[in-house]
Model the fold of this input.
Amino acid sequence: MTNLINDLRRHLSDDVIIQLSKQLGAQDPNQVKAASQIISELLVSALSKDASSQERGGGLFGAIEKDHDGGILGDLMGVLSGQKKVNNPKTMNGAGIISHLLGNRQLEAAQVIGQQSGLDIFKSGVLMQLIAPIAMGVVGQKTKSSGLDLGGLASILLGGGQQQAQGRQGNSGGSFIEKLLDQDGDGSMMDDLLSMGMKILQK
Done:
């Protein structure tokens, strides 16, 4: 089965990583690249979990059909740099995608991504939001090109997740993702980050 994690990572080319680094104000693109590798696995795993749920799978499939056809991948650099406009604003709503997939687990995810990549927690959180539309685009492109229904989408996503899981045994990133996605929660990362930032300022 197609490994969607690797498909996503192929779109995160060196040029894309440099562009994302500029948007984040990150000094070291290598940290951004390392973080993006973890985020790729996290997002596809979260999408797999959604697709396998009867309650959430229909909503995911509907969002892909309406808002994520993979068109942004044709000129990803243009989209990220703002030189190419996207007609549907929901296509690039990374904050909304991440909120749906991770809920109040976003802050914990950003913390661990930052610890493993060296990128600070705030930039890690924003990077998740920047990569999320690309992940949805990859999944949407596959769904459209293969004419998948919800069952087919779930099969492709779960196949990609399982292949990656087999290759990450003993990997701390893998165990963090599995633990994180086993939790339930719904919340706003921006609220959490604001709360944490206020605590830091009060020290």
Remarks:
- The chain has a mean pLDDT of 82.
- DSSP finds eleven helices and no strands in the chain.
- The two ends are 51 Å apart (CA to CA).
